[in-house]
Amino acid sequence: MTSTSLPTQTSPSTLAAIGESRPGAEWWRTAVIYQIYPRSFADASGDGIGDLPGITSRLDDLASLGIDAVWLSPFFTSPQKDAGYDVADYRDVDPLFGTLGDFDDMLEAAHARGIRVIIDLVPNHSSDKHVWFQQALAAAPGSPERARYMFRDGQGENGELPPNNWESVFGGPAWTRVEDGQWYLHLFDTSQPDFDWTNEEVREEFRGTLRFWLDRGVDGFRVDVAHGLVKADGLPDYTPPEDADSMGGEEPVPYWGQEGVHDVWRDWHRVLAEYEGDRALCAEAWLPTVDETAKWVRPDEMHQAFNFPYAMSEWDAEQLREIISESLRAFPAVGAPATWVLSNHDVIRHATRLAMPGHPQGHGVGPATEGKPDPAAGLRRARAATALMLALPGSAYVYQGEELGLPEAMELPDDVREDPTWFRTNGERYGRDGCRVPLPWSAADPAFGFSPTGESWLPQPADWSALARDVEEQDPESTLWLYRTLLATRRAHDLGAAQLEWLDGYGDDVIAVRTGDVTVIANVGTEPVALPAGTLLVASDTFEGGELPADTTVWIAAD
Ligand code: GLC
């Protein structure tokens, strides 16, 4: 008999043990990794931008959530033209975020709680303020200083046309001309010149940066734009389709997914293998299929790759079924775990996106976007989608704020926007600011407790007071308690390491699987679904009666 009342929530005392990491090797195969976007997590200094001491001060909240590891988006020295993904010094902390000492303190405090720490490495491009790029600008065409980046002569009689027709991911041309007439390539903002990864000096420099952070004790790296480092010989022209996702596109794209990138990952794999303790590399590689993505995690390359086909799938049973089964085939086929992700700092938060299909990644939503979803409907789907994701074998990523059920901030005024996408498309694309708004910690405090002064680099929607962590803490039906319960139950049943089996007989609009000793039913359709016998472990929302309503997921243990 299935109990349909509110499932028993995990008590705080059960949660006390959760900060301990899973013992044994290769923690990353089953880990739940929480993405911290430092500028929006917690601000200790009061300048309105989150920082490393802010993260340290909130580690207990993460330990009680029940995650295994954190990944920090960049906190390195940077002019912040692309929120820190424009790095001027890969081996130092930007004063906005603190100091190297603050980093060491944060790392030690995280490790003391059994939380591993992955940092973000950005090898495709540096900031234009990086000393190497400054030297390149000061040096002559053809010099070794220029050879660290992608400088080329232009086309046209006087080289006045760019070397090819490539467009920047953020909009506009991917080439900028310098004073002496040469052009440099930047697949992203003008302030983010691409390195030339055929240059051994670049490779050696990054080996040094890996070692710098590995020596400090980091558990691994999330590798930015891991599909982009190597460009096709001759830099042939390429025009992406109109509606292409900003980082996707159909193959072959001469700047994505070139064979040569794999040599870099084999090299990095060897560097990490020199260190004790299971250090891991995770690829941010936007590729059209799971099979393509699996090439990044072959045994001598990276350890994990984000499953972007899963992140971009709609709330549609057929799509989900296909991507889940492909993922559970393709990743293990190369010896890697499947991974799962629904939100991050580059996509519309899933509490909004899943109820609003058809928006290309990176374009964002804003005040003039049509068809914005009802927040309650979006949240219901998001909770159901997370309950499905966290039941799946492998490793999962959770983006800060999704444990509060935060939606995309869709009403940000134009004058607060910072994403280069917004500027480079002259406001045609809103970009990604809406998923980067600082977290609400406490409803009654200025900036909802994000910073002691009430400053916040992006304004928080007023109705986020209801989603503040301290409010949700008091409500057993909150999204925060749902995440805690899911994570504790996932751990107790070892779902990360379980085998998944598909169950028949629930209809086309339902995802029904057995994973380990847990039956998971996700109702992705519109009609209620009869439930099997058993004890309800978790439900993504409360419901009455013996049938599972639409947009709801349950975990059931056999009696
Ligand atoms: C990655 C980051 C994104 C950044 C881009 C350029 O995709 O996730 O935020 O803008 O790389 O570095």
From TrEMBL:
The keyword Nucleotide-binding does not apply. InterPro entries: GH (IPR017853), GH13_cat_dom (IPR006047), O16G_dom_2 (IPR045857). Gene3D superfamilies: Glycosidases (3.20.20.80), Oligo-1,6-glucosidase, Domain 2 (3.90.400.10). It is an enzyme of class 3 (hydrolase). The keyword Glycoprotein applies. Residues 35-436 form the Glycosyl hydrolase family 13 catalytic domain. This is Alpha-glucosidase.
